[in-house]
Specification:
The complex is a heterodimer of chains A (about 300) and B (about 525). Chain A is built from 14 helices and no strands. Chain A is mostly helical and about 300 residues long. Chain B is α+β, with helices and mostly antiparallel strands and about 525 residues long. In chain B, helix 13 packs antiparallel against helix 14. Classes of the chains: A mainly alpha (about 300), B alpha+beta (about 525).
């Protein structure tokens, strides 16, 4: 078991390292931060001066070496744009993203479990059709679109909730989390529904019913437990996707100060240190998450241990 | 048993999510009504009208967050939005854009061609108690110019060499050769900073701010907003609006939503098509001039007739109406407009005449010529749409236009880093006149000697540019600039387009008029509840 964990750990480190180097080389070959930093139409000497000051006129491999050497010590350099150490800037924005991600995840689970179960009780029924429609809507409406709709309806027209901003969470978290959760509600509902239908058709269910159990007990104690396996798989996928994926769109629409939005700014401004720090933190989170899910699997499925 | 475990794990995961969510810090408390007692100061016989203090803070929304608050390091729109309330310059711009004394007692006087003497106002203090005096003023200027300090604004200082203290309230500014735009420089970006605080806290400047201005910095919640409070000891009189919040919302639609929902009082960069949806709107012609840079040295473009054809081919009036909803003005054959120093009122825009364009192209043997137009999207209002429209107009007169849309960083590289011999045939760009003066546009696009964006060179024009840069007599200088602009129109150094307005959305309770340089000062705003 420990050999399995160690192997997965090494794999995670390799991934983080690989991602960082890849991003580093690509951005350095393609972008020029100096041009971004100066007022348009500045004389050419100014660009050279800034480039030299930032060490950007050295060969890419030399810069890569220095970056890695410093990064191993936890020093990701100074953000060009913010003129502060880069890593703390990213870490400061991290709680906001985590709040959003976990809130969206919680909403997705809380909505898709009942929806999926209800849908599976009588496949083909009106209830089923209704739940599937909701799930399809969730998957089809892009999160930024959903975000705007929510803002217009709940913030502008009804005035129940704020339009945007952070303020530490609370009421401000509701609309962005809802917007972000849509896609995952869609997916998870589908999975819960189809897993449940599969289980309900299995022979042991006949036994369960024959035992005289109430239908609700049959559903929950037997079918749901087995259907949970693929659900957890997808839940893990959802959490990972939330962390690194289209969350940035919701962060932008709602002016939510998270790491996704920060990465977008860093890319636009060619702020290499900030981008590297951001990529590192997000990669670390996602690989950790995957690591946890993989370890969970080892507990769930004994066959995995012997791979 | 394992299935139990699994269910438990799932439950745990969900529980953890809930806990993490719930454990966020509590939202900020609502602003509570304050009861303010006004004390009338009798000794100066000033009648203080007791204006009711607004209870809700003034909320201003801008499109992006400043990177840091050192006003001398960078002065983009976002830094400005905040620093303009906290810091001040030696000279101010009045709402009509004339330059008037600010922290200086009077306009600078020319001691000789390269020395300007500035007398400072007395009795002004920085927010931390440091006095504003000659030492502070000289320090502020020298700091910005210092190469080691690495300000991005350094090139704006032009020929300023140093500032010297003459006595406690007088400084001398030394320039390398005559500097006709020194007044504009002193009014625009050379903000006065407290020497002791800045020296002792070089890292703190990134997040804090201490100036002489009407508002004091309170806090900056990264990514969300900055809070300011009125400076009751402000030398110009305590401002009436006491609490100010400046929020950052990148998405245009969300900014507008904040205005509509009553969360915001002021929204910058409102899109022309959204004007009807804002409670109130104010606008003003701005300082941005979108243009198409022509590579005047390449192929058919070296022929003046072809460049003129390009100018005849574009229907600028239609662009103003269709893209900007009339919130723009056609540029009259120059990178300047009424109200900007150097504007030549005798020049007219090239009229829209596609037949004439085709004729000129035929004459020059450039019918159906293939040209590439490089553009970017998102940095200026309607930049992408403008470039696409121009490409279409050019196609309509028979040219074969290849349209390339680049990401902003890449576009910037092509504009400024790529050697001029590799410049594309045509490139969309915009020229912003931060100084409201013709000097920078002339050097940017009417010559290729001063920065890589220009792609035209003519010895006569060059002589004019150099001459206007050294002529201290405003009337003589104006004549030289008029000549340069006239020649630029004749030679068609670029495709002249338009000048778009700055548009702001306001709430019903806010009263304020937009001004030309696109800056805003809360001290000029009035709340009518």
């Amino acid at each position: 078991m420990s050999r399995y964990i160690i192997r997965r750990l090494i794999y995670s480190v390799v991934v983080i390292f690989g991602v960082s180097v890849f991003v580093f080389v690509i951005t350095h070959l393609v972008g020029d931060p100096a041009a971004q930093m100066l007022p348009l139409n500045s004389p050419p000497e100014e660009y050279e001066r800034i480039r030299h000051l930032l060490g950007l006129d050295r060969p890419v491999l030399v810069q890569l070496y220095h970056f890695l050497a410093d990064a191993l010590k936890g020093d990701f350099g100074y953000s060009f744009w913010q003129r502060q150490p880069a890593l703390p800037v990213v870490l400061e924005r991290l709680p906001a993203t985590l709040q959003l991600v976990f809130a969206a995840f919680a909403i997705a689970i809380f909505v898709s479990l009942p929806l999926g179960i209800l849908a599976s009780i009588r496949p083909g029924s009106l209830l089923d059709r209704f739940c599937v429609t909701i799930s399809l809507l969730g998957m089809s409406i892009p999160e930024f679109c959903l975000g705007f709709i929510l803002i217009i309806v709940f913030a502008v027209q009804l005035g129940w909730l704020p339009t945007s901003g952070y303020q530490g969470g609370g009421l401000y978290l509701i609309l962005p989390a809802l917007a972000l959760s849509g896609r995952y509600i869609g997916r998870l509902t589908q999975i819960v529904r189809s897993s449940m239908i599969d289980e309900m058709n299995k022979p042991y269910m006949v036994t369960a019913r024959a035992k005289g159990l109430r239908e609700s007990a049959v559903i929950v104690r037997h079918a749901l437990r087995n259907a949970a396996i693929p659900t957890v798989t997808l839940a893990g996928w959802a959490l990972g996707r939330l962390m690194g994926g289209l969350t940035v769109l919701v962060e932008t629409v709602f002016a939510w100060p998270g790491v996704g939005h920060l990465a977008k700014e860093a890319i636009a401004r060619r702020d290499f240190p900030l981008l590297q720090a951001d990529v590192f933190v997000v990669a670390l989170l996602i690989t950790s998450l995957n690591l946890i899910v993989d370890i969970l699997y080892a507990f769930v499925d004994p066959r995995v241990k012997y791979e | 048993m394992l299935k139990d475990r699994l269910a438990q794990l799932l439950a745990l995961l969900v529980l953890v999510s809930l806990v993490v969510t719930a454990c966020g810090p509590t939202p900020a408390p609502e602003v509570v009504e304050k009861v303010v007692k006004e004390t009338v100061v009798v000794k100066e016989e000033v009648v203080v009208t007791a204006t009711p203090v607004p209870t809700k803070p003034l909320v201003l929304v801008i499109g992006a967050e400043p990177s840091q608050l050192d006003p001398q390091a960078r002065d983009d729109g976002n830094e400005r939005a905040i620093n303009d309330q906290i810091y001040e310059n030696l000279l101010f711009r009045a709402p009509d854009m004339s330059i008037v004394p600010g922290l200086a007692e009077a306009m600078p006087e020319s001691v000789d061609e390269t020395t300007w003497r500035v007398k400072l106002r007395k009795g002004i203090m920085f927010h931390n108690g440091e006095p504003f005096n000659a030492e502070a003023a000289a320090y502020s200027i020298n700091r910005l110019i210092d190469e080691e300090y690495n300000s991005e604004l350094r090139s704006f200082s032009g020929p300023i060499l140093e500032a010297k203290v003459v006595d406690e309230y007088t400084i001398d500014i030394i320039t390398d050769g005559p500097d006709p735009i020194i007044m504009a420089r002193l009014s625009t970006f050379l903000k006065m900073v407290p020497p002791k605080y800045f020296e002792e806290n070089p890292d703190d400047l990134v997040v804090k701010s201490i100036g002489t201005g009407p508002y004091k910095f309170v806090e900056w919640v990264q990514g969300d907003h900055v809070t300011l409070v009125a400076n009751e000891d402000y030398w110009g009189g305590a401002p009436e609006i006491k609490d100010v919040v400046i929020r950052f919302i990148e998405e245009d639609a969300t900014r507008l939503a904040a205005l509509q929902a009553g969360e915001a009082d002021f929204v910058r960069d409102l899109l022309p098509e959204l004007i009807d949806q804002a409670p109130k709107v104010t606008h003003s012609p701005g300082i941005e001039f979108p243009i198409i840079r022509i590579n005047t040295k390449k192929g058919v473009l070296a022929d003046k007739r072809v460049r003129q054809a390009l100018n005849y081919a574009v229907d600028k009036e239609a662009l103003v109406d269709a893209l900007f909803g009339t919130y723009a003005t056609v540029a009259n054959g120059q990178i300047s407009g009424p109200g900007l120093w150097g504007y030549n009122p005798n020049l007219e825009a090239y009229p829209y005449d596609p037949d004439k364009a085709r004729e000129l192209l035929k004459e020059a043997g450039a019918e159906g010529a293939s040209l590439e137009l490089v553009a970017e999207r998102g940095r200026w209002l309607k930049d992408g749409e403008l470039a696409e429209a121009v490409a279409q107009y050019l196609r309509d007169v028979g040219l074969d236009i290849t349209f390339t849309m680049l990401e902003f960083g890449k576009w910037l590289d092509v504009l400024l880093i790529t050697p001029p011999e590799n410049h594309p045939d045509l490139q969309f760009s915009a020229n912003g006149q931060e100084f409201l003066d013709a000097d920078r546009p002339l050097r940017a696009y009417y010559s290729d000697k001063w920065n890589k964006a220009g792609n035209y060179f003519d010895p006569e024009m060059e002589a004019l540019i150099v001459a206007q840069g050294q002529e201290l007599d405003p009337e003589k200088r104006l004549k030289i600039v008029h000549e340069a602009f006239a020649k630029g129109r004749e030679d068609c150094v670029i495709i002249f387009l338009l000048n778009f307005d700055f548009i702001y959305g306001l709430s019903d309770r806010l009263e304020w008029e937009a001004v030309r340089d696109g800056r805003f000062y809360v001290k000029d705003m009035v709340i009518k509840e």
